[in-house]
């Protein structure tokens, strides 16, 4: 069954709920309880969405965190059959330590659309926004891609900003970027947000480069499909055990996965809500008796992107919901 109804507003209620419940754990140093609060709220909200959903990208398997587990069924059971990709808190450490950039995000597409990452948890990634789509090549040298994006965007090399996760494995990548003269934005966590930031209006970054989570690559691809951007990835085994597993599964480590490989469907919805303040979305703000949230809803078929500033009143919310917001 095709997705005919616009489910974007249903999805954003789920990310808002996750942000409202988990945002109270900002800076309190407890990743698991913050994540559990978001999981419980998102699961509750998604179960009311008129869809027959199956989680294919879950948030817990790689990090052994509280799960919306792969294979879990979500939704009312009526309506279109969809794949569901969730990250109730992208950046649990950011939230637990009170740092910028934590978000709640969910994506859906028609059944069979999302890439199965098959237990190899990491991918090498290269992502850009719509204006630079078609000029990048993950197999090319770093300098080639930085120059190609600079030329396409009409920028000097020194004005290009590349986002990279701050990890020891990226020492050589960072050196190569610096040799081009480009600017580097190092992030501690949250490469979904970083990838999306390359494709929003007035983007704070031009390119995402480096190795990050494979499930996160799929969610990033879903958002970029809505925004017109591009991502290219290659499976990146961390050790001999994962290389052996890749060989056993017949995974070609030289294969380049494109946006359409990661998300094959043409009717994709993505919703995200800020938890802690960031460059992509503002954080959740609490006031006496309620809170404010800042969210985005995207749909690939129409190309529509909606930013939503919402005010939530605990007394009224809890009249229509069993979720203990107040």
What does this structure look like?
With 326 residues, the protein is an alpha+beta fold. The protein has 10 helices and 13 strands. The strands form 2 sheets. Strands 1, 2, 3, 4, 10, 11, 12 and 13 form an 8-stranded mixed β-sheet that branches. Helix 1 runs antiparallel to helix 2, helix 4 packs across helix 5 and helix 6 runs parallel beside helix 7. The chain is globular, with a radius of gyration of 19 Å. The mean pLDDT is 93.
Q: Evaluate the radius of gyration.
A: 19 Å
Give the fraction of residues assigned to helices.
Answer: 25-40%
Query: Any idea what the shape is?
Result: globular
- Low-confidence blocks of residues: none
Count of β-strands: 13
Strand content: 25-35%
Number of helices: 10
The overall pLDDT average reads 93
Largest sheet: 8 strands, mixed
Distance between the termini: 38 Å
Q: What's the SSE pattern?
A: HHEEEHEEHEHEHEHEHHEEEEH
Quickly give the structural class: alpha+beta
Topology:
Blueprint: H1 8-22, H2 31-46, E1 52-57, E2 73-74, E3 81-90, H3 92-96, E4 103-110, E5 122-128, H4 142-153, E6 161-165, H5 171-180, E7 183-187, H6 191-197, E8 207-213, H7 214-227, E9 230-235, H8 240-249, H9 259-262, E10 269-274, E11 285-287, E12 290-299, E13 305-313, H10 314-320
Parallel strand pairs: 1-3, 6-7, 6-8
Antiparallel strand pairs: 1-2, 3-4, 4-10, 5-8, 5-9, 10-12, 11-12, 12-13
Helix pairs in contact: 1-2, 4-5, 6-7
């Amino acid at each position: 069954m095709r997705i005919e109804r616009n489910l974007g507003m249903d999805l954003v209620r789920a990310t808002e709920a996750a942000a409202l419940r988990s945002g109270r754990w900002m800076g309190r140093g407890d990743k698991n309880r913050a994540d559990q609060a978001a999981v419980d709220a998102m699961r509750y909200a998604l179960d009311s969405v008129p869809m027959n959903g199956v989680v294919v990208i879950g948030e817990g398997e790689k990090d052994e965190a509280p799960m919306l587990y792969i294979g879990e069924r979500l939704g009312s059971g009526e309506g279109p059959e969809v794949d569901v990709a969730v990250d109730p808190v992208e950046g649990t450490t950011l939230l637990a330590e009170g740092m910028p950039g934590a978000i709640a995000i969910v994506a859906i597409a028609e059944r069979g659309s999302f890439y199965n990452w098959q237990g190899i948890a990491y991918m090498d990634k290269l992502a850009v926004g719509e204006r630079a789509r078609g000029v990048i090549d993950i197999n090319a040298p770093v300098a080639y891609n930085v120059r190609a994006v600079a030329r396409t965007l009409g920028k000097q090399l020194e004005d290009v900003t590349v986002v990279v996760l701050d990890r020891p494995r990226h020492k050589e990548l960072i050196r190569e970027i610096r040799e081009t003269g480009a600017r580097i934005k190092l992030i501690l966590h949250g490469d979904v947000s970083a990838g999306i930031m390359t494709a929003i209006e007035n983007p704070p970054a031009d390119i995402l480069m480096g190795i990050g989570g494979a499930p996160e690559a799929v969610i990033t691809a879903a958002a970029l499909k809505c925004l017109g951007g591009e991502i290219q990835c290659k499976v990146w085994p961390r050790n001999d055990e994962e290389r052996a597993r890749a060989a056993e599964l017949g995974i070609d480590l030289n294969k380049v996965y494109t946006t359409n490989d990661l998300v094959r469907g043409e009717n994709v919805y993505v919703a995200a809500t800020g938890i802690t303040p960031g460059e992509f979305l503002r954080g959740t703000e609490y006031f006496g008796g309620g809170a404010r949230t800042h969210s985005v809803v995207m749909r690939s078929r129409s190309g529509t992107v909606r930013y939503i500033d919402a005010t939530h009143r605990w007394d009224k919310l809890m009249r229509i919901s069993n979720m203990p917001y107040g």
